[in-house]
Specification:
The complex is a heterodimer of chains A (about 300) and B (about 350). By secondary structure, chain A is mainly α. Helix content of chain A is about 80%, strand content about 0%. Chain A folds into 2 domains: about 70 residues, no CATH class; about 230 residues, Orthogonal Bundle (MetI-like fold). Chain B has 2 domains: about 230 residues, Rossmann fold, CATH 3.40.50; about 120 residues, OB fold (Dihydrolipoamide Acetyltransferase, E2P), CATH 2.40.50.100. In chain B, about 25% of the residues lie in helices and about 35% in strands. A 6-stranded mixed β-sheet of chain B has the order 6-7-8-3-9-10, with helices on both faces. In chain B, strands 13-12-11-14-20 form a 5-stranded antiparallel β-sheet. Chain B has a 5-stranded antiparallel β-sheet with strand order 15-19-16-17-18. In chain B, β9 and β10 form a beta hairpin. Classes of the chains: A mainly alpha (about 300), B alpha+beta (about 350).
């Protein structure tokens, strides 16, 4: 296996980069900027490159190489089956819905945690992080137990036609659960650091509460909301553990792409598993790039 | 529009920020609320604005009770210490904000904002973001924004506090001229006495949630009503002496104090400002015994146009600050350096008896 070789090359490359570039950057007069806070641009760059390459780029490269070995025709045949297309669609729409719901709910929760003093706020604040620490499979199991016909919530909701368990709705529910902390934690500090004077200024100028929120507060926190949306989306796209327990995994209906990948692996259909993974990866990256671009535009605007 | 504050009290928890404060601001006045931090001056300003509500007391505008009226409906312009500009909006939109939320027609908004940009001398900068402006420019935007809604009263909270010294002086002279032009009733808060005295028609000195003194700048400076005011209005030499038979004594030098004609001696404090003491060569005052004090120079610090001399009167442990205009110092017949013997003559002194009404 020629596995260790690329990492070695990467390491050698980045150190070479470091030694050749670092010294002139300091010595050159007019192009010099600020003194570095972290010592040694070379060292920092080497560590950064090593981390990114070995932990992210390299494994993904292996994945893509494996899929590429099938050739274009073989790739499409394996990755673009009707069942896979349905799985992509469920994955992407459910994740977008969940990220949107998390952003909205997250904004509300973050606002309350940052602005409204009430007894038990610290406890509630700590609870926000629980979905990050809890094995998501547990969340999936608990959610399905709650929303089945005889569950605590299901006994009321199922007669109304609301199927929480083993359905598309169930997927969105657990995806909200796992992605909500990101949406809250990104927005909360921004709300805490908002300039309260600006809100008072708006009031003095005759703005109503709604006008103050829409014209003064929202533009200031929108970049953070967008960042929260991107993180929530990324988290939802990669989620597997909770969905596999609540969705019922019905092909063409409630099967998400990660579940399909595992299903194919269990059938020893490695080629299809890999190609589905690569395509899901490509879609996720595209989506995240779009969201991040939007976020940057908002942030520039809010400056 | 005139403002009348009657018996306003306000507490934050156990802290009493304002204690039955009454204040009248006649139409067209530029009034300064002067005091140290925690004196209640900002709280009083915020209560007049409607950003804070008093626990007791009332506020009137032109005789109409506005105590319970919402800040929106008070027709008050407010300028914040740190500008509080809307960072995501251009300068133009910042100034336009008050008109936009009132749904004013666009043509009117544009005309008004252009007029205000000219008034605050920021023509051509309407498209900038606040982050691209200097501190002085930002404060002028904040002022234009407050004026856009045609307020009847202008309130300014430490308007120059965040600016550097040179800009501060320029901007306050400009604000004074602006006030003279538009003649709007204005109240500003400051802890800088120079600012209050240079800018205001009326100075109100506050301390511990109460008004210590109110009057014209000259009045307050020349006739401080309380030891606090005397102390607060800059460097001062304090001497703990006594008063009897209509005279107080400062290092043995008598100072007239007709308010206390009684024979029984009482404690008194004598306050002398450093620039109200005169320095001369001992020989020059030899024939004026009893009106000047023999002392030696300890330190000399030149601070621009003023030379600050620290002296110690003979036979005393106390130090005395004497400010001599540097120009005068050059003409003096004495060498200004540590160890030189000098005579100090008080030209003006103020005497405070802790409680003059109370006589044993």
């Amino acid at each position: 296996m020629p596995l260790p070789k690329p990492t070695m090359i990467a390491l050698a490359d980045s150190t070479a980069f470091a030694t050749t570039r670092a010294q002139p950057a300091v010595a050159r007069g007019p192009r010099r900027r600020h003194a570095a806070v972290l010592p040694g641009f070379g060292t920092s760059a080497a560590i950064t490159s090593l981390v990114v390459l070995s932990l992210i780029v390299f494994p993904l490269a292996v994945l893509v190489l494996r899929a590429a070995s099938l050739g274009p025709a073989g790739f499409l045949a394996a990755a673009w089956t009707p069942r896979a297309r349905a799985a992509y669609s469920v994955s992407l729409t459910a994740s977008l819905l969940a990220a949107a719901a998390s952003s909205l709910l997250g904004l509300l929760v973050a606002w309350v945690l940052a602005r409204v003093p009430f007894p038990g706020r610290r406890i509630l604040d700590a609870l926000v992080d629980v979905p990050l620490a809890l094995p998501t499979a547990v969340a999936g199991l608990v959610y399905s137990a709650l929303y089945v016909k005889k569950g605590w919530l299901g006994q009321w909701l199922v007669p109304l036609g609301i199927q929480g368990a083993y359905s598309y709705l169930g997927i969105v529910l657990v995806l909200v659960f796992v992605s909500l902390p990101f949406a809250i934690r990104v927005v909360q500090p921004v709300i805490e650091s908002l300039d309260r004077d600006a809100e008072e200024a708006a009031r003095m100028l005759g703005a109503s509460r709604a006008q103050t929120f829409l014209r003064v507060v929202l533009p200031a926190i929108l970049p953070a909301v967008a960042t929260g949306f991107a993180l929530a989306l990324a988290r939802a796209l990669g989620e597997y553990g909770s969905v596999v327990f609540i969705s019922g995994n019905m092909p063409f209906k409630s099967e998400i792409a990660p579940v399909l990948i595992v299903a194919r692996l269990e059938e020893f259909a490695y080629a299809e598993a890999t190609t589905v993974a690569v395509l899901l990866l490509a879609m996720s990256i595209t989506l995240l790039v779009v969201v991040n671009t939007l976020q940057q535009r908002l942030a520039r605007n809010a400056q | 529009m005139s403002i009348h504050v009657r018996e306003i009290s306000k507490s934050f928890g156990a802290f009493r920020a304002l204690d039955r404060v009454s204040l009248e601001v006649p139409e067209g006045t530029l009034l300064a609320l002067l005091g140290p931090s925690g004196s209640g001056k900002t709280t009083l300003l915020r209560i007049i604005a409607g950003l804070e509500f008093a626990d007791e007391g009332t506020i009137e505008e032109d005789g109409a009770d506005i105590t319970a009226r919402h800040a929106r409906d008070r027709e008050v312009g407010f300028v914040f210490q740190h500008y509080a500009l809307f960072r995501h909006m251009s300068v133009f939109e910042n100034i336009a904000f008050g008109l936009r939320v009132r749904k004013a027609p666009n043509a009117e908004v544009v005309a008004k904002v252009e007029e205000l940009l000219r008034l605050v001398r920021l023509e051509g900068l309407g498209g900038r973001k606040p982050a691209q402006l200097s501190g002085g420019q930002r404060q002028r935007v904040a002022l234009a924004r407050a004026l856009a809604i045609r307020p009847k009263i202008l309130l300014l909270d430490e308007p120059f506090g965040a600016l550097d010294a040179k800009v501060r002086v320029e901007l306050r002279q400009w604000l004074r001229r602006l006030h003279d032009e538009i003649g709007m009733t204005s109240v500003f808060v400051t802890h800088d006495q120079e600012e209050a005295f240079e800018l205001a028609d009326t100075v109100v000195v506050m301390n511990h949630g109460k008004i210590e003194q109110q009057g014209s700048p000259d009045d307050v400076f020349d006739h401080p009503a309380t030891p606090f005011v005397m102390d607060f209005l800059g460097n001062v030499n304090v001497y703990h002496g006594r008063v009897e038979n209509g005279r107080a004594f400062w290092h043995g030098i008598p100072i007239d104090y007709p308010d206390y004609p009684h024979a029984q001696a009482r404690e008194a404090r004598v306050y002398l400002r450093p620039h109200e003491l005169e320095l001369s060569a001992p020989a020059a005052v030899a024939n004026r015994l009893g009106t000047s004090l023999a002392a030696s120079i300890l330190r000399v610090v030149r601070s621009g146009p003023i030379t600050r001399v620290t002296c110690r009167p003979h036979g005393s442990e106390q130090e005395l600050q004497v400010d001599v205009p540097t120009e005068v110092a050059h003409r003096l017949q004495i060498i200004l350096e540590p160890g030189t013997h000098v005579a100090i003559t008080p030209r003006k002194a103020r005497v405070f008896v802790p409680d003059p009404e109370y006589v044993i």
